[in-house]
Design a protein that fits this description.
It is built from five helices and four strands, in the order αβββααααβ. The longest helix is centred in the first third of the chain and has 48 residues. Strands 1, 2, 3 and 4 form a four-stranded antiparallel β-sheet that branches. The protein is rod-shaped, with a radius of gyration of 34 Å. By secondary structure, it is α+β, with helices and mostly antiparallel strands.
Length: 172
Amino acid sequence: MKADPKADAAPPAAGASKKKLLIIILAAVLGAGSLGGGAAWFLLHGKADAEEGKHDKGGKKKKAVKAGPPVFVPLDPFTVNLQPENGEQYLQIAFTLQVASLEEVELVKLNMPKVRSRLLLLLSSKKASELNTGEGKKTLAGEIIAQVNEPFEDHGDQQEVTDVLFTSFIIQ
């Protein structure tokens, strides 16, 4: 009995197609893996580059300012003696801080004793003649922002106070 030549040829062809299929599947898996790995590297590398640009001059990481409605932190009024020029003078001032987010509101409120202490020291170092002009008030607002934005902890992040809105300003 003679073997059928077609029967002998069929098993090697099936084995060859399985090898081709295995190679194609393996190539597809490797291609998808390298594509996914490349995408992940690109996204992580791009994010790291973007993070590098989000540092201030001191090397500390800046917080992203979120768009949305303004967020305010009202402070209790301050009354301080001013530096003497023409006899005793005092300043009674009330203002509201504008901050970047609700998290900043909580941070400022939790550290209110530090905020008030910093601002009392700042305000009591002023002279009435420095504060009487509009320019003097703008300068004071900038100094208030700088004082409140200082980190509350050593090596901590700065706060994001963006504006000072005076609600009362009396020099007597």
